[in-house]
Amino acid sequence: MKRHLSILLIIMMVFSITPQAFAKEKDEKKSAELAHEAKSAVLIERDTGQVLYDKNSHEQLPPASMTKIMTMLLIMERMEQGKLKMSDKVRTSEYAASMGGSQIFLEPGEEMTVEEMLKGIAIASGNDASMAMAEHLEGSKEEFVNKMNEKAKELGLKDTVFKNPTGLPEEGHVSSAHDMALMAKELLKYEKITSFTGTYEDYLRENTDKKFWLVNTNRLIKFYPGVDGIKTGFTQEAKYCLTASAKKGNMRVIAVVFGASTPKERNGQITKMLDFAFSQYETHPLYKKNQLVEKLKINKGKEKTINLVTSEPISVLTKKGEDIKKIKAEIKLKKDVSAPVEKAQALGTLTVKNEGKLLVESPLVADSDMDKAGFWTMTKRTLSHWAKIME
To answer: What region holds the Peptidase S11 D-Ala-D-Ala carboxypeptidase A C-terminal domain (predicted)?
Structure first.
């Protein structure tokens, strides 16, 4: 009798556990197969940065033209600061025109606008356009590369060392799937960038006899709904690489593959990762980019306070069907901030927690420049202050 009861209990336990165990095993197996042919790969949700899939994501490898993600990031950052405009003219040096590999065939002395150069970089992966922009922004390749590495350090990227702004082979020029995903996450803060990275075809020099047809090296833009970036890469050493971004509904994800053997294999693995993300997860938006969150007092400023806004979209990610529990946002502001203040300067932090667990940490930034107050403004404030005390 005891023996029969024991057998019955075991059977009941097996049947009660097996469905969940099988489901978990199935999910793990499905996840493991997402990029099994790549050297390394990663899949993240953009707003939260949460990792949904990882394969050797910190392995240092040559990034090829995915390098241009950082090049574009520095261009967009400069525009956000108001120090560069799309209409600005950029002159091509002999050195920039001499770049090999992918190019838009710039000639020495040829001028294009920043907007046209961005098209050449984002769509055609132009090495010449990348170098021309690097020299325009910092005066030389070397100074621009210093800025690239400074930005990588600022973003906490530990696997990345840049030697050039193009991705052309150079000893010691390395990155990782993890770092590329975080660079892409940062670049996508600038929403206008996808109007370049998400364009499949366009033209340069349209009103001349040297009209040049641009076709995006990322074919998924045409064949996978929602894909709008970001950058492919290929060299004999790096093989086929891609950092892809796709958006469906409220959810945007970033998938990175290093070292695929063929373009078809690379695109296939990216497709599997995107399918996995959109079928298994959903994003719950909390804040839009540039949403006013707080006002901060500025010492000796032209105005007494400045608006602090979100620097990126802020969301919470869950498995599909999961409830959002106790979400709490906390704001921490810098103290004793004095003018001058630059637009986009980080002056606070917004954190989002779920039952005490940190989900998101994002900078709050100034929505405009603020100069120091002039003599008469400071005098009026002082007199007004004393008048209130004397009342």
So the answer is: 281-372
